[in-house]
Write a structure and sequence with these properties.
2 domains; elongated; 2 strands; 3% strand; DNA-binding; homodimer; Four Helix Bundle (Hemerythrin (Met), subunit A); Arc Repressor Mutant, subunit A
Chain lengths: 245, 245
Amino acid sequence: METELKPDRDLSAQIAGAIRDAIISGQLIVDERLPSEAELAENFGVSRPTVREALKRLAAQSLIRTQRGATGGAFVNRLSYGDAYGQQITTSTLLLSMNDVDFATACEARFALERACAPLAAARRTPDQMATMRAEIFRQGQAGLSDESFCASDVTFHRALVDSAHNPVLSYNLAGVIEAIQPLMNMITYSARDRTEIIALHSTIADSIEAGDGACAEQTLDALQKYTIRLARDARNACGRRSVS
Amino acid sequence: METELKPDRDLSAQIAGAIRDAIISGQLIVDERLPSEAELAENFGVSRPTVREALKRLAAQSLIRTQRGATGGAFVNRLSYGDAYGQQITTSTLLLSMNDVDFATACEARFALERACAPLAAARRTPDQMATMRAEIFRQGQAGLSDESFCASDVTFHRALVDSAHNPVLSYNLAGVIEAIQPLMNMITYSARDRTEIIALHSTIADSIEAGDGACAEQTLDALQKYTIRLARDARNACGRRSVS
DNA sequence: ATTTTTTATTTGTCAGACATTTAATTGTAT
DNA sequence: ATACAATTAAATGTCTGACAAATAAAAAAT
C-alpha cells in the first residue's frame, strides 16, 4: 500500500483509490488500523491535509471509521447492512430523479424484484412479518389517512414482504428501489375507491404468503403493478389537463 | 443551504450532509455550480480545508464534480448509470466479503433477481444481445480455457441476459450482485463435465429468450442455480478435506 | 480582425500551528 | 500494595496563510 499510484487524478483521489483497493483485495482486514495521518503523509509523500481528504472520501463510503485520542486513528470498517442500505437508497434515489427514469420503468423494476422475493417469502415468512403486513393493511383502511401516510404504510408493507424472504442480499437491493420510488408514488392522489382496491390486493398478497402460495402472490403483485401504473398515468394526465386549462 | 447543521459529527460531515440534502431535495439542480470553497467557508463559518473535506466526501459519492480554473468550481453531478454501477459493485462486494454471507444466500439472491429479468428479456431481447450470449456460449466451449476466463465469460453472458430486459434500473441492481459474487465463483474448479452441463443450460436459456419463452428461461435458471450451488458445495468439501489431511 | 499577453479566479497542495479527545503513564495518598 | 488523581503522549479535528497550477476572460499588440 506504499506509493504505486495511478496518475491523472487528484492526489487525494489516488491515495483513496490505493487504500480502497487494499481493503477490497483483503490486504487490509476489518478493524485493522491504518497508519496515522502523519505516517500516511510521509509514506505517500504528500501533506497531511491531502491525506485527510483521501480519508474523508473513504469515510463517505463507510469504508473506514475514525476515532480520536491516544489509541485512535482510522480503522477499516465492517460495512453493515444498515450502511449499505443507506448508500443504496441515496444512489437509487438520485439515479431515478436525475436521469428521467419514467415511472413505468422504475415500477417495472420494483415489482419484478418483488415478485422474485414472493416464492421465498411464501416459504419462509415468520409470524412477526405477517403481523407487520396485517397491521399495515389495517392502517391503510383507516379513514382520514393522508396520502403521504398511506404511501409510507405501503412502503412498510412491501418491505415486510421482501424481508420475509429472509435473504439480506435481496432486502438490500429492494430497499433502494422501493425507497427511491416513494417520491414518485407520493405524487399520486389516492381516491377512496383506489385505496379499497389496493388494500384488497394487499390482503390477497398477505393471504398468499401466509398460505405458502408464492405463485398467487406473484400474480397479485403483477395486478398491483398494473393498477399502480394506471393510477400514475391518470395522475399525470390530470396534471397535464390542469396545466393546459 | 446556509448554516443549519446537525451537531455531534465532524464539521466536514455536517456540511457534506447539508449540501447532500440540498441536492437530494432538489434545491440544487444538476450542473448547478456551488459557491466557491472560500464562499462556502464563510457561509458555514469554517475554514477552507474543512469545506474541502466536505466536498471530497460528496465527490466520493459522485454527487459533485470539480473543475479548476477561472470559471471552475464544484458542480452538482448528474449521477450516471456508470457511476451508479461502480458504487453498487463496490458496496455489494464489500457487503458480501465482510459479512460472511454464504454462497448459497448470495447465489439465491442473484438467480432470484435474474429470473425476474427473464420474462422481460424474452419479450425485448435484441439481436445484438442474443449475439453476445451466443458468442459467450461458444467461448465457454473452447478447449484450454482457464477457470477464470470461464467465469468472466459467465459474467458477460449473464449481464447480456439481464440487459436484454432493457430496464436500466434492473441492470443496475443486478450488476452489483453478479460482480460481487464473481470472487466466490472463482473459487470453483470446473471439470470438463461441469462445463458441458453449464453450457447446455446456457444454450437452453438463450434459446428460450430468443423464442420469447420467459417461463422456460426461468426454469432453466433455476436448474442452473441448483447446479451452481452443488458445485460450490463440492468445492468447499474438497477444500475442507484438503485442509484436514 | 486576429493573435498574443496579461490578469483574475478558482481549485490543488503544502507547511505549521493549536485545540480536543483519549488512553496510558506517573505520582500520590491511603 | 492498591486506589485514585494528575500528568503526559498520541492521535484526530480545525485554523491560518501561503503558493502552484489551471483556465477563461480581458487587455494588448500585431
